[in-house]
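FORM 7B: Structural annotation worksheet

SECTION A. Query
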Amino acid sequence: MRNFTEREQVVETVNRLFYYTDFQQWEKLIKEVFAEEVILDMTSLGAPAIETLTGKQICEMWKEGFKELDAIHHQSGNYIIDIEGDIASVKAYAIASHYKKNATKGTTREFIGSYDFRLVKFKNNWKIDRFTFNLKYMTGNTELN
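SECTION B. Predicted structure
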């Protein structure tokens, strides 16, 4: 990413988050996307509390949560980015679609909402160290049963 502007590097990191998650490339997420510790806020989805986790812990949690799914797809955009020194804040819209071919009450569910990210620049690489999902609504077979 040497030839990218700072803004492009930040967007690239967020895009890698979604792409690597969709293809379950956990090692790349740990190495390229997440800071050593990440403040993760998924309370809008029912998580009991905001947590501080390692990238490895997040990937293990997601791997377990996605193991019954046949496909995962994230689409993000409308990035609003502020960069001050080695700290970047990103606001983005996103849709996550989950597909399970054997579900009997509908094969898909979608999560529509926005994200708030904070990234820190570490050794010339931007890493996510704060991650909040803000659910607007869900559609489809929300339990994928």
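SECTION C. Observations
Helices lie at 6-22, 26-33, 55-66. The radius of gyration is 15 Å.

SECTION D. Sign-off
Analyst initials: ____
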